[in-house]
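Table 4 source record.
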Amino acid sequence: MRIGIDVRLTHYRTGGISTYMRRLLMALEALDSANDYVELHSRKSREKFTRRMGEARLWTPCHHRWERLALSVELAPLRLGLLHSPDFIPPLRGARRHVITVHDLTFLHYPQFVTADARRYYNGQIEAAVRQADHILVDSAATQRDLMEMLNVPAEKITVHLLGVDERFQPMEVEALAEWQHKLDLPDGFILFVGTIEPRKNISGLLAAYRMLRDRMKNAPPLVLVGRRGWLYEDTLRDIERLDLSSQVIWREDVPDAALPAVYNLASMLVMPSFYEGFGFPALEAMACGTVPIVGNRSSLPEVVGEVGLQVEPEDSAALADALEKALTDAPWRERMRRDGLARSREFTWANTAEIVLRVYRHLGAN
C-alpha cells in the first residue's frame, strides 16, 4: 500500500498533535518495511522525520478555508492507497481510503474556550470529516465516547490508541539538574504547571487554589508556569495581580524543549487541572520523570494517570488546594506515587501506538 501521512501542521506548531505526528512516523518506520510511506509536509518546511519514507512538499496551508478542496487537487498525482490525516480534517478526496485522528472534541464541549477561528474550522467540518473517514483513531476512550454520543459515530469505526512518552523523560542525575536549574533560574521544589496559557487549562482555578494554599502554608513553594501565551492569556496575568501572587508565581515562557525533562525532575509535583484534555502529555511526562501528577478528573486524564497522584474536580479550587497540601506534606505517599508513576509511564510507548495504527492500515488495505 502507498500511504500518505499529513504532517504539514508540524511547520506551524510544536507539541501536542505535532509531537504525535513526528513520533508516529518514526515508530512506523521502525515497525513496517512492507508498505510505501510518504511524509506530506508544508512546502515551507525543511524537516524530514524518517530516513526511508518518501516525501512530498505541499502548497496548501493548514486550516485554510479552501484547504479540503486544494489539498485534494495536490494529492491526486500521488495516487495514494490510504491517507492518514492526524489533524482531524481530511481533504475531500485524497486517497482510496481515509483515516483521521480525532484528539479531542473541546470545540464542541467548551466552545467558549477556543478561538473564533478554531470554532469555524473544526465545528463547521467535524461532522463531515467523521462521516467521510473510513476509520477514526482516538487518543482515549473518553474521546471515543464523545464521538459516539455527540456525533453518532458507530463504535466499530473507532479505534483507541493511547500515545507514547519520549524516552528522554526519565529521572536525571543531580549534576545535570543543577545546570538546568541555574540556566532557567528556577527555585527549589516548586509546584509546576506545563501547557499553553489559555482558558481550557483552568489556570484561574489553579491560581485560586494556590492562593488558598499560601494562606494555609506561608512557606509553600512557588508556583512555576511553563508555557507559551495562548488565547486570553491576559486573564491569567490579571488573576495573578488580583490574588496578590506576583512574588510567588514564576512564568517561564521560553523554556527550550530540551530542558523539559529537567523541569519535571526539579518540581515537587505537576498540576494539570484542565477542564478537558485530548490526552495530556505533561501528566505522562511528569510520571516518567518521577514527579507526582495532580490532574482534573475529566476527559482523558484519568486514563493517563490511573491510580497515580490525585484527581480533582476542575471547578473545586478548595479540593485542589487540599491536593496540593497533601502532595507537599505527605512524604511517604509522595514516594509511593513516584514509584507507581514510573512503573505506569513505562506502559505508554510509541511502538505500541504504531502497532495499533498499522493494524488499522492493514485492515483497510485488505478491504
